[in-house]
Design a protein that fits this description.
481 residues, alpha+beta, Endonuclease III, domain 1, Nucleoside Triphosphate Pyrophosphohydrolase, 2 domains, two-stranded antiparallel sheet, 9 strands, binds iron/sulfur cluster, glycosidase, DNA repair, Adenine DNA glycosylase
Length: 481
């Protein structure tokens, strides 16, 4: 029999011009700035997993859809349930120290003395793991982290390493700017802080590439300071716990500010803010997932607006809660399209092929990385024949021993069509038209006028700092050549 799903009347975020929204904003602002005890707790919801009968959650609180914050009592409950859950459910990671929190009301264990910068929980270990974990799955990060710590076990080692070597250790993680910034920050720490990572958020924020989240994570986890660290996982958990954050705060700066205020209230004046921040992140990563949340395993159901809404509507919580955080449907990221012609020049040396790569100039997203000679064009794809590659050929002619043709005609070159590669950056949709060219290079010629260029054997390409789309280009060309 077909079941009809009951719809729950949820108030949606209204655009900024709405007078209704202005009224809600005023109420939200006062909610966020002042923490009041909740009204009468007559209809208390007691979770079966509640550690203490005195820690109860008001159903009236959870029914209040304008909630953008927690009462003091709710903060107490959240801390206790979250930290107890974290003790039993945290993942062991090479950079993570065991939780300091102890169950049954015992005081947290004292901070460990971190003499070795790469030991779990040490500032350097936490910082590098946070930089690597941005935009990358933890299972991937673990291998990179271990290799990195073997070769660069301290800030000093990182500051003294050549950037090229740092890139090589990073190769495959993507977003190479993170590696460049970490290298730069390490030099700042050596110059300005005698090689010791500062523990306060303001000093951390002055370091290259360190934003509010990383500063909060390092300061709380490695130094025990009572500061928040709000990443995407934490935002999602908070948006579901307090549905008012989506309904009353405009996406963007206003909502972000509200997330930070709620998270800061949760860690205010506690000794082990690092545990609490990591517990929130862990709940977001392993239980409160973007789709298919596992509410039945969550320690926070009794505090959760989204879960309570689903219960009242008698609908399945895991799919219902995915509506939070509500997105701003009026805001679209502008994506532009770009056509790039990319030339893969290679040489056969003995039994192996070597590819000519050049280092990209500038400080942009891909600055400093290796790539095949290429050029962005504003032509139609139909115009990207051999003729279109003339300019790229001119660039490499005479470089690193490459000799492409006489008089700049290049008419007798055997360019192999290797098709197209598509790649999407956050705001650019690229179509790369790829051709391969086999050249002859003598040993004497190799290296001539080759500044910024190098030959790399095809098996070594993935080990050097090359962007993902350029790796696809090289693969496509060598497959066809
Ligand atoms: S109860 Fe469900 S929606 Fe709420 S925080 Fe837990 S997992 Fe997320």
């Amino acid at each position: 029999m077909r079941q009809t799903r009951r719809r729950v009347p949820v108030q949606r975020y209204s655009p900024p011009s709405s007078p209704l929204r202005k009224r809600r904003r005023a109420s939200a602002a006062s909610d966020v700035s002042s923490y009041q005890s909740p009204p009468s707790q007559s209809a208390a919801v007691q979770s079966s997993s509640s550690p203490s009968p005195s820690l109860t959650v008001s159903a009236a609180d959870n029914a209040n859809k304008s909630n953008t914050t927690f009462s003091l009592e709710q903060v107490q409950i959240l801390r206790q349930r979250l930290l107890d859950w974290y003790v039993d459910n945290h993942r062991e990671l090479p950079w993570r120290a065991p939780p300091r929190h102890q169950k049954n009301g015992k005081a947290p264990k004292p901070m460990q003395n971190m003499d070795c910068p790469s030991s779990p929980g040490a500032p350097y270990a936490v910082w590098i793991s946070e930089v690597m974990s941005q935009q990358t799955r933890l299972s991937v990060v673990v291998q990179y982290y271990k290799r990195w710590m073997q070769e660069l076990p301290s800030v000093k080692h990182l500051a003294e390493a050549p950037l090229e070597r740092v890139y090589e250790l990073w190769a495959g993680l993507g977003y190479y700017r993170r590696a460049r910034f970490a290298h730069e920050a390490a030099k700042q720490i050596v110059d300005q802080h005698d090689g010791r990572i500062p523990g306060d958020v303001n000093s951390l924020l002055k370091l290259c590439g360190i934003g509010r989240y990383t500063a909060g994570a390092v300061s709380s986890i490695a130094f025990g300071h009572a500061v928040a660290a709000v990443d995407g996982n934490v935002e999602r958990v908070l948006s579901r716990l307090r549905s008012g954050l989506s309904q009353n705060c405009a996406p963007g700066k206003e909502r972000s500010r509200a997330y930070w205020e709620v998270a800061s209230a949760c860690v205010e004046d506690i000794e082990n803010a690092g545990d609490l921040n990591q517990a929130l992140m862990e709940v977001g990563a392993s239980v409160c997932k973007p789709k298919g949340a596992q509410c039945e395993k969550c320690p926070l159901t009794a505090l959760c607006d989204a879960y309570q809404e689903a219960q009242r509507a008698k609908v399945e919580a895991s799919s219902y809660v995915s509506r939070y955080p509500m997105k701003d449907k009026t805001k679209r990221i502008k994506v532009r399209s770009e056509t790039v012609i990319a030339l893969v020049v290679f040489v056969q040396r003995g039994g192996r092929r070597e590819v000519l790569l050049r280092r990209r100039e500038g400080d942009g997203l891909l600055g400093g990385l290796w790539e095949t000679p290429n050029r962005v064009v504003d032509w139609d794809l139909d115009d990207c024949g051999d003729e279109a590659f003339r300019e790229v050929l001119r660039e490499v002619d005479g470089v690193a021993g490459v000799c492409c043709g006489e008089n700049g005609e290049y008419s007798d070159l055997n360019l192999v069509d290797a098709g197209q590669v598509r790649h999407v950056f956050s705001h650019i949709r690229q179509r790369l038209v790829v051709k391969a060219l086999k050249v002859e290079v003598t040993k004497d010629e190799a290296g001539r006028r080759g500044d910024g260029y190098r030959w790399v054997s095809e098996t070594e390409v993935e080990k050097c700092a090359i962007s993902k789309q350029m790796r696809k280009v090289v693969d496509a060309a060598l497959k066809k050549a």
